[in-house]
Amino acid sequence: MSRRTLAIVVSTLLAVALGASPAAAHSPIRTLSLPAGFQPEGIAIGDRPYAYFGSRRDGDIYRVSLKTGEGRVLSEGPGTPSLGLKIDDRGRLFVAGGSGGDARVIDTRSGAVLKSYPLQTVPSFINDVVLTGGAAWYTDSTNPVLFKLSLAKGKLPDAATRVPLTGQIAYTTGNNANGIAATPDGRALIVVQSNTGKLFRTTYAGVTTEIDLGGELVPNGDGLWLRGRDLYVVQNRLNLIAKIHLNRAGTAGEVIGRTTDPSFDVPTTIAEYGNRLYLPNARFTTPAEPTTTYDAVSVPIP
């Protein structure tokens, strides 16, 4: 018997002894259970690997192991929502504060709030965040403005910078600027306007230009995920993920597919781990009770 064959036999015997097949022993957990009544919205995945979820009910941050499925509340919320989330390479979780009109930065090791930023004193909905161009950028679905946290040398700033949105985007009734991502060349931002289904290339100065999708729209566009030149747009109430192939500058793109799955129940935001995309089911069409069940599900990257 060759050494390679012997290794395979030993691996198989170990897997059987542990009550699992070799494939199952290495399979990712595809559905992550979240606490009853949690009302998830945002998701971010770190390298360790853990998935982090924000509660739109009270702002709690819940951390789940992608290896075991076990989770716990990492950081108690302020009583207002935690929506879009992103993690940087220093282990800091950037949180969009929804109707609280704020942003927070949380240490993913301790759960401590490193810094809190009041962004708006008027009615607002700080919806999502992206880390690019040496800064964290936040959208406001109620007011035509972005908020920028400059991260020079990785240091958190004392205050956020207000960046008004100008150009072609026009705010109207409902959720406006929602998900946000970088362009493939990293020189600008992409913002989805949920109520119109339009995507806008947005300069760091806030000048917006509609991205040419050849007449296509992505209504109910929510979380965005950029992978190379492919942009994945979660269309929440439609239970879809649209895949858009962009040019490098992010000025034009083509919708090359849409993915759905029976496990989708109004997914909102999106993150990648391994060869799968993970999405929290916000269940907007289900009454939000203390006993309402919630989860996050995954699909292969289309």
UniProtKB/TrEMBL annotation:
InterPro entries in the record: 6-blade_b-propeller_TolB-like, Host-pathogen_enzymatic-act
Protein's UniProt keywords contain Transmembrane: no
SUPFAM superfamilies membership: NHL repeat
The name this protein goes by in its record: Superoxide dismutase
Cleaved signal peptide residues: 1-25
Source organism: Paractinoplanes tereljensis
PANTHER family the UniProt entry points to: DIHYDRO-HEME D1 DEHYDROGENASE, PROTEIN NIRF
Entry annotated with the keyword Isomerase: no
UniProtKB keywords: Signal
